[in-house]
Specification:
This protein is of the alpha+beta class. It folds into three domains: 2-94, Helix Hairpins; 105-161, Roll (SH3 type barrels), CATH 2.30.30.60; 167-256, Alpha-Beta Plaits (2-Layer Sandwich). The protein has helices spanning 2-37, 47-72, 77-94, 96-111, 151-155, 182-194, 230-248, and strands spanning 119-122, 125-132, 136-140, 146-150, 159-161, 167-177, 206-212, 216-226, 254-256. The strands form two sheets. Strands 4-3-2-1-5 form a five-stranded antiparallel beta sheet. A four-stranded antiparallel beta sheet has the order 7-8-6-9, with helices on one face. The longest helix has 36 residues, at 2-37. The termini are far apart.
Length: 260
């Protein structure tokens, strides 16, 4: 106990200095991060890259602060490095999942399968990408639920990005009685699509008979639109085509959606 007291007495100044450096360093890091937010160069970068860089810089500054505090306490850096190396191996084995997520986050930034703001379907979750962090990605569903998906899972799963392309195609199927004339049904479908302001005329809309049963004929309708107009056009055509069938007296119109 006497030796411990003597050691603490000799290190008293260093301990106080280390605490002061830790407190000051904490506020300095917060100040630097605020300055980083004001850097004009970040305005030109993709939001995904910006958030990732800020997160990486923040962790790096905290690591440097911790190393500085340890050095201030008089611990030889060679021993610190040896301890960190040994601890790194142990932590790496214990946190394989976390390291997998970290590697996944880095690969997401390099490969860029999707960006912040895209609507994606991946790893069993669907939603708008809110943020891509070092270890996880945050999705916001259409009914305003927040889903946190580990980056490791995203890198090992099929990713469907519905916002990647400027155009999307709405595919619908409609059925009618077999007594109807196919050419007339086709014309009704095309005329109804032509009235929509959301439907694109290039590529041209498509409407043809695609099958049927002993009682009914099945028609498929394919219409291109802007990606952001997909759901509006989807529901609009569902309603307007059924109404057009009723207005023209088409018998037994029944709607069946194939690609919702």
């Amino acid at each position: 106990m006497t030796r411990i007291k003597d050691m603490l007495a000799g290190m008293g100044g260093s301990i106080v200095m280390a605490i002061v450096i830790g407190i000051v360093g904490f506020y300095v890091i917060k100040y630097l991060m605020k300055l980083l937010d004001k850097v004009k160069g970040f305005d030109r970068l993709d939001p995904t890259v910006t958030r990732f860089v800020k997160s990486f810089v923040k962790w790096l500054l905290y690591i440097m602060l911790i190393i500085g505090i340890i050095s201030m306490l008089g611990v030889p850096m060679a021993q610190v490095i040896a301890v960190l190396a040994s601890a790194g191996v142990a932590i790496g084995l214990a946190l394989q999942g976390a390291l997998s997520n970290l590697a996944g986050g880095i690969l997401l930034m390099v490969i860029r399968p999707f960006n912040v703001g895209d609507y994606v379907d991946a790893a069993g979750a669907s939603g708008v990408v809110q943020s891509i962090n070092l270890f996880y990605t945050v999705l916001l569903t259409v009914d305003n639920k927040r889903i946190t998906v580990p980056n490791g899972n995203l890198m090992n799963a099929n990713v469907v990005d519905y916002s990647a392309e400027a155009l999307r195609r709405v595919d619908l199927e409609f059925s009618c009685a077999k007594s109807e004339k196919p050419s007339e049904i086709q014309q009704i479908l095309l005329d109804t699509v032509a009235k929509s302001t959301l439907a694109l005329h290039d590529p041209a809309p498509f409407a043809r008979i695609c099958g049927g049963t002993n009682e009914a004929m099945l028609f498929t309708v394919r219409v291109w639109c802007k990606s952001e107009d997909y759901w509006d056009l989807f529901f609009e055509l569902n309603q307007t085509i059924v109404e057009a069938f009723a207005e023209k007296g088409v018998q037994a119109p029944a709607l069946r959606v194939v690609n919702g």
